[in-house]
Specification:
By secondary structure, chain A is an alpha+beta fold. Chain A has 14 helices and eleven strands. Chain A has a nine-stranded mixed sheet. Chain A has a two-stranded antiparallel ribbon with strand order 2-9. The longest helix of chain A has 38 residues. In chain B, helix 2 runs antiparallel to helix 8 and helix 10 runs antiparallel to helix 11. Classes of the chains: A alpha+beta, B alpha+beta.
Chain lengths: 383, 396
Amino acid sequence: MFRFLPLLWANLWRRRLRTVFTLLSILVAFLLFGLLEALRFAFFGGVEAASDDRLMTQHRMTIVRDLPGGYLGKVRAVPGVKFVSPQVWFGGWYQDEHKPLQVIAVEPEAFIDVYPEIRITEVEKRAWFIDRAGVIVGKDIAAQYGWHVGDHIPLQQNIPYKANGNTWDVNIRGIFDRPNGNNNGVFMQYKYLDESRQFGRGRVGWMVSRLENPADLPRIARQIDTMFENSPDETKSGSEKTWVGDFAKQVGNIGLILSAVAFAVFFTMLLVTGNTMAQAVRERTSEIGVLKTLGFSHAAVTWLVLIESLLLTLTGGAAGLGLAWLLTRGMQPFVATLLPLFKLPGHALLLGLVLTVLLGLAAGALPAARAMRLGVVQALRGG
Amino acid sequence: MASSFSQARLVTALNLRTLVTRWQSAAVTVVGIAGVMVVIVGVFSIYEGFRATLELSGAPDVMIILRGGSSDELQSGLALNAVKIVGDVPSVMRDADGPLVSGEVFSSVDLINKATGGMALVPLRGMGPQGPKLRSHLHFISGHMFTPGTNEIVVGQGAAHQFAGIEMGRELKLGANRWNVVGIFSDAGGLAESELWCDLTVLQGTLNYGTAVQSIRARLTSPEAFRAFKDTVTTDPRVNLSVVSERDYLANLSARLRGIIRSAGFAIAILMGLGAIFAALNTMYGAVAARTREIATLRALGFGAFPVVVSVLVEATMLGLIGALIGGAIGYMAFNGVQTSTLNMSSFSQVTFAFRVTGELLQWGLIYALVLALVGGVLPAIRAARLPIASGLREL
């Protein structure tokens, strides 16, 4: 196998410019593929991270409406519900109004119980529990703003919660890490928000429950919704997975549009690479004749052509995917507030590599078949 | 020089006639450029459609009054007296029913998006009796306006197209009450077509808002009255209000989303453009290589380098033009008028809009495609001009 490497190498560099341009166009195609996959993950990646033993309960009419705080106790009393955390959207921003934060007010103890995958040290956790103005922040957002545990920061707010002043002073009590999840969140204490707000006091935005057994989810969801039926605030409950998925779908058929773009790009690149390979083999018709005269089998010649094609797409594709990976990492801090999950996940990289191989095989197939069929005499005559 | 041009014409004509024999590699350039064109037309038709719905649909003489410091209706809240105060300002237009002022409440309802099957936050607006007169292009496609004081609801045609459960005559349950859909309206493609409308006081009751509103809309006697109106309203000591024209409000509301679509569009266009340039370069180098003997013969006969360069560039441009026309046509057929909706984070609700392939968009796409093709042709053209004649003649 390896003794053919010099021959492959010489073939590839026979028309230097053509090889370089083909490599570059494959590189660009896979760079684009990588960026689109990162974008898709930003929209739909949260669905994979969502847990199936968590139940979301919101106002039946719309998430924008809130629920009576008294619902918490009633939901907690439902058999099969282990913990319930109230959540209220706070939003807000830090320093720059155009960079909104994802601040949510929660009950700290319940929050930690409901989200066991959140990693935070015991010391920081306790410090947050006992500080009413304390917040915990995700590691990504902390890195972006250079926040450290113990920092005292002012959060700004557009929603007129307070009668005077839109500034909320909070203390950073902990920095958490949610593996493979959104690490741009800021969680403040529900009590801190509720005691100073002038409307909606005692009410909660939505509730998150953790169940003893995920299999009970449909039954418990029905039970909760029936409990509040025909009240002024009816509820709608469902799994966190469905909820996150529905939210992602709010963006619309963006997935379809992305796939269409990706398809157009691949179709184009397949043609370009395929044509290059075809040209390369056509030019070498008499050389193939020489190879076959020297005793190379039909199969060997076919493989040479296929491997050359694969070499081209794998090199270009790997470089493009690598570049996409570097770029998404570099862009992360700038898009984090808008698209916290903008990153290239491992399975997308893998899919990209599989596609480079498929592209190489598809592009090399026709020329390889032609190289195989060529008779010696005909080839020596130049096709 | 004149002979140089006539030579260029001759060589170009010869070149284009032999193009047929090289159609395979020429097709690659055409497809490459067409691919770029389709993608550009697609991505930017989203941008154009969104822009038409939000940026261009706002009226300059309709004012939106919010709580001081609020940037959108969702975060605003006003007491009832503000509606009266705004109505008393002299620059507000009046008719037999009083000042053209409407206190409004903005919420949303969860409906199913027909395209994705998922939930969608569809904007729901309660408006005062003068509200409809503040929408300049309001037109009922079927049914009629809601009757004030009843649980009747009317639906914008964008929302009617995109979301399930709000068909004409349907009954739907919002909060504790049942509502009837009694009309479907259009508003010249504007943002209002994404919304559901109902009576203000009924919605206030449903939402437990008391008499509070979130925003006030007011029509002025003319767009020029803006300054005076704003000064009067913002300096009134009884209330804390901010004023913005509907046009500016809508442009501001969509600024972020438009920015994202635009940057994504440019990034995709540039990357795909690079890919297409490489494809064109390959084809044109291939074309020059295939014509080596022909070019050398021409040069030996006394033709200059300039006509050869021109012929290569014309060939590249021709291929680019064909690709751009095919791509433009496919893009137009595939994307123009496609109805869709997306979440506008600034108002935290759905915006329905149609993709728009405008003439201007096609024109810029065409120019871009031709530039790509030309760039892909320049280097090969230079090589063609520099071909050594003697060795070229020996080339097989």
